[in-house]
């Protein structure tokens, strides 16, 4: 019988390390269920979604151009020739 008590007590003590983390802050239910706060630019985006789409497309195109410009040899041909063994 005594051995049966040792196992649960050992498990209980294993969970008590003395270095307990703080619990996360609980939010009130009305705050959790409230509508999210929209950013300042949201009304403009709602009024003119085509402008937002065009701006996003322009930014994507600019990023694609930058990525394309980076495609190329990392090591310049002259430096690469010097790095290769002569022989």
From TrEMBL:
Residues 37-56, 68-87 are annotated as: Disordered. This is DUF3035 domain-containing protein. PROSITE patterns: PROKAR_LIPOPROTEIN. The lineage of its organism: Bacteria, Pseudomonadati, Pseudomonadota, Alphaproteobacteria, Rhodobacterales.
């Amino acid at each position: 019988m005594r051995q049966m008590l040792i196992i649960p007590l050992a498990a209980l003590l294993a969970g008590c390390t003395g270095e307990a983390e703080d619990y996360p802050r609980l939010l009130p239910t009305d705050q959790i269920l409230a509508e999210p706060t929209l950013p300042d630019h949201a009304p403009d985006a709602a009024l003119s979604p085509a402008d937002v789409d065009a701006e996003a497309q322009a930014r994507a195109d600019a990023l694609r151009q930058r990525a394309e410009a980076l495609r190329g040899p990392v090591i310049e041909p002259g430096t690469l020739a010097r790095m290769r063994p002569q022989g």
